[in-house]
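User: Show me a protein chain along with its predicted structure.
Assistant: Here is one chain, sequence first, then structure tokens.
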Amino acid sequence: MKLGHFAAFIALFVGLSGCRQDYSLAPPADSEKITVTVKLPKELKTETLEVMYRSGACKSVTYGASGQRIELDGRHGIEVQLQRQGQTDIYQAKLPIDGGGACRWKISNVMFGVAYIDPTRFGENVTFGGGGGVLVRFDKNRPMRSSGLPVKVDGNLKIKKDYYPWLDEEFLGRYKKTIRLAGEEDIYLSYYSPKARIIYFEPVLYSEFLVRSAGPIEKKKGNRTTFIYPDGSVLADGRSKPNFRKLQAIRLAVEGK
């Protein structure tokens, strides 16, 4: 369930130790906040912002391969909708660092991003396939999704990244056609920034530089995904995603830079 106001947030976690403890969030009114801001291109929309809080006071319990009991910091997940600021292209959310409550929750990591408003403009039954995501960690706990080694940043985050539309067709198994946002990383940009209080994300979308790809029709040795770049060049060089440097070079050549 997607909610826009902090007072209405619902816990998503289960399995904390104890049976009658109150695990709800109760952020103090004076809790310091983290401000997440997204400057949105007109063809895109913001995805739900997911926030993970952790607690050393309310442990979660899991079991190892041999049945041993393992206690971990408790987890409490919430979802937030970024709110448009007036009639601008700026969307924002403010997140309490101190989640309060009996468990003394503290913010651990946040995950957010952008997606196409209408994927079907690229064809019937086209769906959004990912890209344009950001994951920021504030502590050493495992984040809500694996995203590789994060970039360490001291202080606030200002992220401005280039993206290109990537239309992909897959034929093996169930046929699917997706539109993605091709950037430097696969899906999520990952950061570790324990002192960040302001997170600004500006995805720059170059809509006119569409890259297309088609996976193999037959599973056979030597068959590879074929990429057709905006300049008409065709490559099947074993890559699973577009060559971002090549896309940048094509655009800069067209723009005369």
